[in-house]
Amino acid sequence: MRHVQIRAFHHVAVCGGFSRAASALNLTQPAISDQVSKLEEEYDVVLFHRRNRQVTLTDEGRRLLEITRRLFEVEKQAQEMLVESRALRSGMLRVIADSAHHVLPILGRFRARYPGIEITIRSGNSQEVVASLRAYEAELGILGEIPDSPDFECIRLSSAPLIAFVATGHPLARRKTITLEALSRQMLVLREQGSMTRRNIEAAAATCGVPLKATIEAEGREAAREIVATTGGVGVVSATEFGQDSRLVPIRLSDCDACLDEALICLQERAGGRMIGAFLQSARDALAEAEQSP
């Protein structure tokens, strides 16, 4: 097995095709196809199903991809170490967050220190955050829980109670509190399955023997906010994420002490990378500064 063969396989798998892999590696498509074919022939294995100019991984291909993701991540870390003097002058850091609100103070501090680093942020619920990190599709994640896994390096960013919220014209808008039982009788606008906000409020209600059923399921926090503002529904969010919106008012849950923890996480095996480590340190510094503020 040669490095060029395994590299060709890896890029076909992650790029989704031979042409895209060739473009990513600045090679011709026949060259990529030849390297993958030699790898398959040498080990008498089929790594891709090839049908109608489309390729999909076989079971053996999927298992090999799990290994090559780690292999090329280690290679990337070795390269960063070897060019340490330049590592934080350029590069890209990918962040996936269930709420960008929590990463903004860290982002500002990091950008001030390392202006040459390009940062991309995309949204996803907690399940998507974890899946993206495990698939090496992002370096860092923000999610509404502390993962119960030794695979992750975690920094707790905040912990806030869950609250209900309604539009200013809603009949409940003048109330300061609401019970879970009363909440269950409302037109509930809840986040999609996989959201920690939804998981936590449903778990808290189940503990109290109160069934909660979503009348409207919203994909993402902003979608839930807009639906509540325009349809007369009742939403649930953490207090820190409620933000400022003149169309909406918060209502405390009087018999629910469920909280939403927000954490910055990365794979433990990647925490030693210079860019990732620098971002984690920026988070620790931002938290220390916040604790010292009056």
Textual characterization of the structure:
- This protein is of the alpha/beta class.
- It has 3 domains: about 5-80, Winged helix-like DNA-binding domain superfamily/Winged helix DNA-binding domain (Arc Repressor Mutant, subunit A); about 90-155 and about 265-290, D-Maltodextrin-Binding Protein, domain 2; about 160-260, D-Maltodextrin-Binding Protein, domain 2.
- Helices cover about 45% and strands about 25% of the residues.
- It has helices spanning about 5-15, 20-25, 30-45, 60-80, 105-115, 125-135, 180-185, 195-205, 220-230, 275-290, and strands spanning about 50, 55, 90-95, 115-125, 140-145, 150-165, 175-180, 190, 215-220, 235-240, 250-255, 260-265.
- The strands form 2 sheets. Strands 3, 4, 5, 6, 7, 8, 9, 10, 11 and 12 form a 10-stranded mixed β-sheet that branches. It has a two-stranded antiparallel sheet with strand order 1-2.
- A hairpin with a 2-residue loop joins strand 1 and strand 2.
- Helix 1 packs across helix 2 (about 20-25).
- The longest helix has 24 residues, at about 60-80.
- The chain is elongated and about 70 Å long.
- The termini are far apart.
- About 35% of the residues are buried.
- The model has no long low-confidence stretch (mean pLDDT about 90).
* Derived structural class: alpha/beta
Radius of gyration: 23 Å
Unreliable residue stretches: none
Please tell me the CATH architecture of the largest domain by its name.
3-Layer(aba) Sandwich
Number of strands: 12
Shape: elongated
Say what the CATH topology of the largest domain is: D-Maltodextrin-Binding Protein, domain 2
Mean of residue pLDDT?
A: 89
Q: For the report, how would you describe the main beta sheet? A: 10 strands, mixed
Proportion of residues in extended strands:
15-25%
